[in-house]
Specification:
mainly alpha; 6 helices; 74% helix; 188 residues
Length: 188
């Protein structure tokens, strides 16, 4: 026969187990609220929750009374759950949501800083290209190159674009297979 002290200890362990299961359920609720899964995702998350909770309850049951299932074990777990949801669930949910908001803000700020650091070389290249274009060097170099490459009788003066700098980048772009774009004045 089990002594009264060991039964009270098992009852207290099961009340603590009810509190623990309630806390795990609140964590699950916050995760589910933040992710908003569909039907299949809900099924998978429910399955993961029960695969997480069942071993924990079984371990606590083994610690409390060597795995013996008695009525006071179920009553203790139910009382622990009820007490948790009545006393501390709202505060724990508020704290978990506040932590999730803080963590989300931290992740957003970290991502912004990483993107800023990663884009610095691109910004330097962009500023250099804008300064080069603003000074007209791009158009001048393009015009010199076109004059050198075009045959004497086929200058680009008849080309319908008035400002060669508008199409400078496009005209010198290479196709994926390595050849330049064909232009009417490039025929030789």
């Amino acid at each position: 026969m089990i002594s009264l002290v060991s039964q009270m200890l098992a009852f207290a362990v099961m009340v603590a187990t009810g509190f623990m299961v309630g806390c795990m359920f609140d964590i699950y609720r916050v995760i589910r609220t933040l992710t908003r899964p569909r039907a299949k995702g809900t099924f998978i998350m429910d399955l993961c929750f029960w695969l997480w909770v069942t071993p924990a309850v079984f371990f606590m049951l083994l610690m409390g009374n060597w795995g013996e299932l008695r009525l006071y074990v179920f009553l203790g777990a139910a009382m622990g759950l009820f007490a948790y949801f009545q006393l501390v669930s709202a505060k724990v949910l508020w704290a978990l949501l506040a932590f999730a908001r803080w963590l989300g803000g931290l992740l957003v700020r970290t991502t912004q800083v990483a993107a800023l650091i990663a884009s610095m070389p691109l910004q330097v290249v962009r500023r250099f290209c804008l300064a080069w274009r603003r000074q007209g060097l791009w158009a001048q170099q393009w015009a010199k190159r076109r004059r050198r490459e075009a045959p004497i009788g086929k200058r680009a003066s008849w080309f319908p674009v008035k400002r060669p700098s508008d199409l400078a980048a496009f005209m010198h772009a290479k196709l994926p297979w390595g050849k330049a774009w064909p232009w009417p004045f490039d025929r030789r």
